[in-house]
Write a structure and sequence with these properties.
The complex is a heterodimer of chains A (207) and B (496). Chain A has nine helices and no strands. Chain A is flat. Chain B has 23 helices and six strands. Chain B has a two-stranded antiparallel ribbon with strand order 1-2. Chain B has a two-stranded antiparallel sheet with strand order 3-4. In chain B, strands 5-6 form a two-stranded antiparallel ribbon. The chains are: A mainly alpha (207), B mainly alpha (496). At the A-B interface, helix 2, helix 3 and helix 9 of A face helix 1, helix 2, helix 8, helix 12 and helix 13 of B.
């Protein structure tokens, strides 16, 4: 406790330096917050699938999911992060997220994105998590990424290859998608016209 | 403490100075990279050249979006026929001659066909006998409203009220490009957008705003601009949706009854009739697919892969012609099984629909017999109300596309009430006829073919056809010539 106090005292700059240091610290923290804002970092704490298309590299996966039946029941995180406990979920998210952010920032992303081993293990877990009742009578229930390598059986998507992203997964494959899906809007002339008739009919009622 | 600062070596100060520069530089670089890469999302659309805000020519949009345009042009295809639908023109009056009797005194008794693809929209509305010839043509321009991206262009130019208030013939030279890109898309961003006032006006009256809808909603709402029930409010033929009391056949009926709206007075029964348009959206909303979050586009415009590219198939058509990309995205059954499932439901809807049609045709003729026997207005009034409501409910299902498949249970419920009301009317007619000394059952005339039925209600089909040919060979040719001059080019599509 005493040591910590000493350290803090040692870090406090001499009084005539305090103002510039405060300003400098403010600049750094401000810059940090700016980056948090423009990168939409807070969204990564949620399960909103739109967080996954903050970077456009995921738009093919997002749009193929949006056109699949899984859209109605499962979002990205339901399949792609572990759900057995809270700590593991966020650890996994942080690891994956940092890797993705690094790859994207340095433009290292490949044309066709393939899932890595850690991700495969999680997806296999999650297929079984929801579909347990459909597969508890077949050997698929026992397959994990780990024992799959030892020849224990096939992963779910070794057969269900279209589920849910389809087989075509290159970044160039979904060229005209709206990413992110836009907010519905009216053409200007129509919006003006509707507002105009609205205020007129309200006026008529008041009379 | 101040001693420390003095004693720090100068090179250390320079090091701190340099490190700070590097740190700020890198943070700035990261920030600009994030901003730049987020911009890439926005600029993903590749335009070969900018599209004008009011560009109605689909082929101009197609230069920038070739896959979407090519599939759109396939709506010209007329080779697919399913059991009850498809993209071929089916002549409904030939198939169901009762309809001629049911629409006596109304233009639908002249010609009524299953619509072909969107690319035929303008040509089909020019060709059909309902829109008439040159002389004494009183059709309002409102009839053009759903046929072309030229419509919002003209509405903006002349005003919405003024558009509805002009004549169909007057607007003909302006409305030449069939339903297409600009009807649903923003030319700058390609976002889905609403371009027809009636839909938004109906939602405004319910207190709903554009921001209440999601992108998935929009994938149905762009269709709901037209595939809905509507009427032309008088005066001025102002296109209006009767949704203020609700979306069901019953609520719309209550709406029409309250404002005492009639589309026409029936020529035989003199009933104050309603004509349903195509409440596809309203019927669909009551069905299981809508309740499970499916949109129109999910089945009618599924995802398509071509040469490693994925895009939305703009050949808007019956999903039965594309089971693999529509139904089978969710349903794991075989194609044969899925088609069987659809036909089974449609067959049942059609079975009850045919009962309603036979009931209604008979009711109109029996009502005429009652008038002929000297029935009074007072006697007939409740009967005519029953006929009006019965036919409205039949039409609400019959006019919707898909033979009830959009919601088989609701379709059968509404048809059930139609048959019940129609038979009630016939029961009361029997009483009136007996009262006036007519022996029942009365002998009904033969209307087993379209020709017989049209003759019965006094339609001179040859005269109508001659007038139509004259229109097509003179006025319509002028429209196209003027449009070609105005636009610089004109795609006439398939004018056959």
């Amino acid at each position: 406790m005493n040591g910590l106090k000493k350290l803090i005292v040692k870090l406090i700059p001499p009084s005539r330096w305090q103002l510039p240091v405060i300003i400098l610290l403010g600049i750094f923290i401000g810059l940090g917050l700016f980056i948090v804002k423009i990168s939409n970092a807070a969204s990564y704490l949620t399960d909103d699938p739109k967080a996954c298309i903050n970077c456009h590299v995921m738009s093919t996966h997002y749009s193929s999911w949006l056109h699949s039946s899984h859209r109605e029941r499962a979002v990205c995180n339901d399949c792609h992060v572990p759900h057995d406990n809270f700590v593991r979920k966020y650890m996994f998210k942080a690891q994956d997220g940092l890797r993705h952010a690094t790859m994207f920032t340095f433009r290292l992303e490949p044309q066709v994105i393939r899932i890595h081993e850690a991700g495969r293990a999680v997806v296999q877990e999650n297929c079984k998590r929801c579909h347990e009742n459909q597969i508890d009578r077949v050997s698929a229930i026992n397959v994990t990424e780990e024992n799959h390598k030892d020849g224990a059986g096939k992963r779910c998507w070794d057969c269900h290859r279209e589920t849910p992203h389809g087989r075509v997964g290159s970044q160039a494959s979904s060229m005209n998608n709206y990413m992110p899906p836009p907010e519905p809007s009216l053409p200007e002339w129509l919006e003006e016209y509707i507002n105009e008739t609205n205020s007129k009919s309200k006026g008529a009622k008041n009379e | 403490m101040s001693n420390e600062t003095k004693t720090r070596k100068p090179w250390l100060n320079w090091l701190f100075f340099g490190a700070t520069i590097v740190a700020v530089f890198l943070i700035g670089l990261l920030a600009s990279s994030i901003i730049e890469r987020r911009q890439e999302t926005v600029s993903r659309l590749q335009f070969s050249k900018p599209i004008d805000e009011w560009e109605p020519r689909n082929e101009v949009w197609g230069e920038s979006f070739p896959q979407e345009y090519e599939t759109y042009m396939k709506t010209l295809d007329t080779n697919f026929v399913s059991k009850h639908g498809g993209n071929q023109m089916r002549r409904y009056l030939d198939e169901f001659p009762e309809l001629v009797i049911m629409w006596a005194g109304y233009a639908f008794s002249k010609e009524y066909n299953q619509g072909r693809g969107h690319a035929y929209a303008v040509n089909d509305v020019r060709n059909i006998l309902r829109t008439g010839g040159i002389d004494s043509n009183s059709m309002p321009a409102t009839c053009w409203t759903c046929k072309s991206p030229d419509v919002p262009r003209m509405m903006n130019k002349v005003g919405v009220k003024e558009f509805y208030n002009s004549k169909w013939l007057e607007m003909g030279e302006q409305v030449v490009n069939p339903i297409g890109c600009g009807d649903c898309h923003d030319p700058k961003t390609m976002n889905l957008r609403i371009t027809r006032p009636a839909l938004m006006e109906a939602f405004e009256r319910q207190g709903k705003k554009m921001k209440d809808f999601s992108h998935q909603d929009m994938r149905s709402l762009v269709c709901a601009q037209c595939h809905v029930e509507y009427y032309f409010a008088k005066p001025g033929n102002y296109l209006t949706f009767p949704w203020d009391k609700g979306f069901s056949a019953d609520s719309m009926e209550a709406y029409y009854d309250k404002i005492e709206f009639t589309d026409w007075t029936h020529k035989l029964s003199r009933a104050p009739m309603l004509k349903a348009q195509h409440p596809d959206y309203e019927l669909f909303k009551t069905g299981i697919h809508a309740q499970r979050g499916v949109s129109c586009a999910d089945c009618h415009m599924p995802y398509k892969v071509e040469g490693g590219k994925k895009f939305t198939d703009h050949q808007i058509q019956s999903p039965l012609n594309n089971i693999a990309n529509s139904c089978q995205v969710c349903h794991r059954e075989s194609e044969t099984q899925l088609i069987k499932d659809v036909y089974e439901r449609q067959d049942r809807v059609l079975e009850i629909r045919r009962i309603a049609e036979k009931t209604l045709a008979a009711a109109h003729l029996e009502a005429k017999a009652a008038w002929d026997a000297g029935a009074t207005e007072e006697e007939m009034k409740p009967v005519l109300k029953l006929i009006r409501n019965s036919q409205w409910r039949w039409d609400w299902v019959a006019a919707a596309n898909g033979v009830g498949f959009h919601s088989p249970v609701e379709a059968l419920r509404v048809l059930g009430t139609s048959v019940s009301l129609g038979e009630k009317a016939r029961g009361q007619l029997a009483v009136i006829l007996s009262k006036h000394g007519v022996k029942i059952p009365i002998q009904l005339p033969d209307y087993s073919t379209k020709e017989l039925a049209q003759k019965l209600i006094g339609i001179d089909i040859e005269k109508l056809k001659a007038e139509k040919i004259k229109l097509l060979q003179t006025v319509v040719k002028e429209w196209d010539a003027k449009a070609e001059k105005r636009q610089g080019s004109l795609n006439r599509y398939n004018q056959k």
